[in-house]
């Protein structure tokens, strides 16, 4: 019997080549799209799930009320980790992480790269295996270091580097471990590790409970109740700081790090999980749309197999056997489509990785993958074939064999409902893509408050700080730059913020978080900031400007000075005199309003040199001259520069990827939907060929017949638009509410999406409609 069913299945497959091709193509595109999304989703949910101690690993976070809001942050005092281990027996161990950029050298090879400085316990807490070296003592010495395979090859050209020496700044380190390269699905990012005690050597160790510059990871003993421990540790900072710090400590589990990083009122409310769920819904709907195509085409051609069903039932076949036969046929088609889909995924995955910034791969060597792929194909085949199977098996043999079987025509037939579902979802995706693109464009067109053009920065490495005056003088004297300044961070980011700002008239109960930026002098000219009041810092004309400060508009409004110029403010005890107020400029997210910011003078720390290149020449012509000056005064370090406008563009990267992916899958959804529409139109034209012949004999024009045949499908698309518009409006309003600087949803977005859907559907069905209308009525009516 099985052999007979397979023979019939293959016979039907090849007998109706056109419809079989449409079914297979639609299913394969839908399955490939769903598989790509599932690979991406699996990568997202698998972050840091490979650690064997994952059920006992937590990160310490702070929670406190500032600006009237309960806020959470994961930078902690360096002393928190040792205190947790010493005071709470439930804590098995702790590992602190401090990140800092260094220049590593091996002979003439120099690389500027960020180091992860951590405690030895990190190696026993997390599963990052050493290929060479002993994790028990690899970080015991202050001059020891661990490198990844990638770092070893980059510095030495080989992975066999145990015992070799690397210079960092003025210190030499011995490689005591070679770590396997980090997997792509981890939150940790580093190329080499230095021991925690090195912080003392470079003067970066800190014993204060008020200074948060480290991340603290906690390993709990297996019998520990995390909720009970959380109640015990929450006041540890308050106690140790003698109430100077009024915030709690809580533990955030490793399972939530990647996907649940957004907090509201001190509680986790989501994060990347929202995007994962969104694309999960998209994958499900794309697969469903592909299955709907199969259902529609299978039921549309039901008359072709009605007699077969009638004969089988007369011969004794029950409904269950017929259902099994038809589902088996759909599984066969799904298997062919699945094989094509897997091949397509394998071929397009490199491009998809580039698009998403991931390192996904098809795990062909893992038996579990093939088991999951088989289950996926079976699931698709069953879903696609279930409705046609039950529909076909429900035919009454007497009606079929007597020739009285008739197709039902209804304004709300299941086939029409399924087409409406297809296009409703496709139109929602089109509208969503347009809104995301508009939101990105809106933020990109926002005035950042400074001039990004021709502004270059270089980190202060090696002797650049010592030789800064000479470098600045040469850059200006040779007309390479029009302005040069030192800052703590690049213009497009901020490295410090504080709640410790005091000023005359401040409400003692107010706790306001101020961003802190620094300059020596000339920032207004270098960055093109807009001065509203006062002046910029100028150490030549005003030597006291080393303790001067500029406020942005928001900070000036918060402080409520009648005249801020000349007022004194204090940053954790350090006094600064306000000399100017600048217009707010974007230093964090271009999608959010800028909070209060203070630009402090030269008694602060500096990490970066900013240069405003001469506007009369392209940057490409000026950079060799800049490089020559930097290399002359800093020969031991590489010349690594960055453009501020390129940094600013990176702020849009995540949103742009969402827009691209949404647009891609919207296009695929439209393609699959139109593929099904094309098949239905072909069947309709074939089924109504005699009606068309009669109409032509009676004088109907080609245009009127084409309009008649296309009208039904266009009407379904119009219904889809009516359904999709309110759904898209609601969903995208929820998404836009996450942005302070956002667009309003415009009517033209819905109109453009609707017109696009109608035009595409009309083009899809018009070919079949016109082809049918052009048929010679003599041929179609010959048998009448």
UniProtKB/TrEMBL annotation:
Cellular component, GO annotation: plasma membrane
Domain ABC3 transporter permease C-terminal as annotated: residue spans: 281-393, 664-773
InterPro entries (alphabetical): ABC3_permease_C, MacB_PCD, Macrolide_Exporter_MacB
GO molecular function, one term: transmembrane transporter activity
Cross-referenced Pfam families: FtsX, MacB_PCD
Transmembrane segments: 21-42, 278-300, 321-349, 369-392, 417-437, 664-685, 697-725, 745-765
Keywords: Cell membrane, Membrane, Transmembrane, Transmembrane helix
Main location: membrane
Annotated MacB-like periplasmic core domain residues: 20-235, 427-594
Name assigned to this protein: ABC3 transporter permease protein domain-containing protein
Organism, scientific name: Dyadobacter fermentans (strain ATCC 700827 / DSM 18053 / CIP 107007 / KCTC 52180 / NS114)
């Amino acid at each position: 019997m099985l052999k007979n069913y397979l023979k019939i299945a293959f016979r039907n497959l090849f007998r109706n080549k056109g419809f079989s091709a449409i079914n297979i193509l639609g299913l394969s595109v839908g399955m490939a799209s769903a598989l790509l999304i599932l690979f991406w989703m699996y990568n997202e949910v698998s972050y840091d799930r490979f650690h064997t101690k994952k059920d006992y690993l937590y990160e310490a976070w702070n929670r406190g009320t500032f600006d009237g809001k309960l806020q959470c942050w994961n930078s902690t005092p360096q002393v928190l980790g040792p205190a947790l281990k010493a005071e709470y027996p439930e804590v098995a161990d702790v590992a602190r992480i401090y990140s800092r950029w260094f220049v590593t050298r091996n002979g003439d090879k120099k690389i500027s790269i960020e180091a992860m400085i951590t405690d030895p316990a990190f190696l026993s807490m997390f599963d990052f295996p050493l290929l060479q070296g002993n994790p028990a003592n690899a970080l015991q010495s202050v001059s020891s270091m661990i490198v990844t395979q990638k770092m070893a090859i980059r510095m030495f050209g080989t992975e066999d580097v145990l015992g070799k020496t690397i210079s960092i700044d003025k210190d030499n380190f011995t490689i005591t471990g070679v770590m396997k390269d980090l997997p792509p699905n981890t939150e940790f990012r580093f190329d080499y590790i230095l021991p925690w005690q090195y912080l003392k050597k470079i003067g970066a160790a800190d014993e204060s409970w008020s200074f948060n510059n480290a991340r603290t990871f906690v390993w709990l003993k297996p019998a520990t109740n995390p909720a009970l421990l959380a109640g015990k540790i929450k006041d540890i900072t308050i106690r140790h700081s003698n109430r100077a710090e009024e915030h709690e400590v809580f533990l955030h589990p490793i399972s939530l790090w990647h996907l649940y990083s957004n907090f509201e009122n001190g509680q986790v409310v989501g994060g990347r999980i929202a995007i994962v769920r969104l694309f999960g819904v998209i994958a499900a709907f794309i697969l469903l749309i592909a299955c709907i195509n199969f259902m529609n085409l299978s039921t549309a051609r039901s008359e072709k197999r009605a007699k077969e069903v009638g004969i089988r039932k007369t011969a004794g076949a029950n409904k269950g056997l017929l259902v099994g036969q038809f589902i088996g046929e759909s599984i066969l088609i799904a298997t062919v489509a699945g094989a094509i889909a897997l091949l397509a995924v394998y071929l397009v995955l490199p491009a998809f990785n580039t698009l998403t910034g991931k390192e996904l791969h098809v795990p062909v060597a893992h038996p579990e993958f093939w088991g999951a792929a088989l289950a996926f194909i079976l699931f698709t085949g069953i879903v696609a074939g279930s409705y046609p199977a039950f529909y076909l098996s429900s035919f009454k043999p007497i009606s079929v064999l007597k020739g009285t079987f008739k197709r039902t025509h209804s304004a709300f037939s299941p086939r029409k409902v399924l087409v409406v579902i297809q296009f409703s979802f496709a139109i929602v995706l089109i509208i969503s893509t347009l809104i995301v693109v508009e939101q990105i464009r809106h933020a990109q067109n926002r005035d950042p408050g400074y001039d990004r053009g021709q502004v270059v920065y270089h980190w202060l490495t090696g002797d650049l700080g010592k030789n800064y005056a000479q470098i600045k003088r040469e850059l200006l004297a040779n007309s390479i730059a029009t302005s040069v300044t030192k800052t703590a961070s690049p213009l497009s980011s901020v490295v410090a913020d504080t709640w410790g700002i005091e000023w005359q008239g401040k409400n003692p109960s107010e706790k306001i978080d101020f961003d802190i930026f620094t300059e020596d002098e000339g920032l207004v000219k270098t960055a093109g900031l807009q001065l509203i009041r006062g002046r910029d810092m100028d150490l030549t004309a005003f030597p006291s400007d080393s303790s001067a400060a500029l406020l942005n508009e928001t900070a000036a409004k918060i402080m409520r000075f009648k005249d801020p110029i000349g007022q004194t403010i204090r940053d954790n005890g350090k006094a600064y005199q306000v000399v100017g107020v600048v217009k707010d400029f974007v230093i964090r997210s271009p999608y959010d309003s800028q909070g209060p910011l203070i630009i402090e003078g030269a008694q602060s720390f500096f990490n970066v040199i900013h240069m405003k290149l001469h506007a009369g020449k392209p940057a490409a012509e000026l950079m060799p001259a800049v490089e020559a000056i930097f290399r002359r005064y800093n020969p031991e370090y590489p010349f690594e520069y960055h453009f501020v406008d390129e940094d600013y563009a990176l702020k849009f990267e995540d949103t742009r990827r969402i827009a691209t992916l949404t647009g891609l899958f919207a296009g695929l959804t439209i393609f699959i939907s139109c593929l099904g529409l094309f098949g239905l139109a072909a069947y309709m034209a074939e089924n109504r060929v005699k009606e068309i012949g009669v109409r032509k004999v009676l004088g109907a024009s080609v245009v009127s017949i084409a309009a008649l045949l296309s009208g039904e499908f266009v009407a379904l698309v119009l219904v889809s638009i009516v359904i999709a518009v309110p759904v898209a409006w609601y969903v995208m309003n929820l998404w836009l509410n996450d942005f302070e600087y956002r667009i309003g949803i415009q009517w033209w977005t819905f109109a453009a999406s609707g017109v696009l859907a109608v035009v595409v559907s009309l083009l899809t069905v018009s070919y079949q409609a016109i082809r049918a209308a052009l048929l010679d009525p003599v041929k179609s009516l010959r048998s009448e």
